[in-house]
Write the structure tokens for this entry.
Amino acid sequence: MQKITTYLWFDNQAEEAAAFYTSLFKDSRVLDVQRYGEGGPGPAGTAMVVTFELAGQRFIALNGGPEFKFTEAISLYVDCDSQEEVDELWAKLTEGGEESQCGWLKDKYGLSWQIIPRQLQELLTDPDPARAQRAMKAMLGMQKIEVQGLVDAANG
């Protein structure tokens, strides 16, 4: 077991969210579902705690009720290998959610994600500061990150 595990609080969609998230990433699966019994506080038989892995990283989701909501103060950062991966994840995660800027979005459960192509970091740390600044300026004008737009801007 990993030493630190991200724990996510949902109203009542933990099992649905875990199934959705595990469908998006390779090496992902639901590991365990603990259900409420007759003593509650949730309806008997419904998921209480769902343990799952995304790309080998363990998460725990709790159906804790409506007391707490996700905020942008925490997000899941996804290091994408290609524009195709960015496009696919962006489309699936924004369905029922909302786009933000600079590669950020909220999914239909309100959880914030950063869908970032690896090339962004390479361009922002370019040894030529003018090139890196042009890439940064282009990124600041984007919602979903478009690698070709970054490259074109960096090349001036």
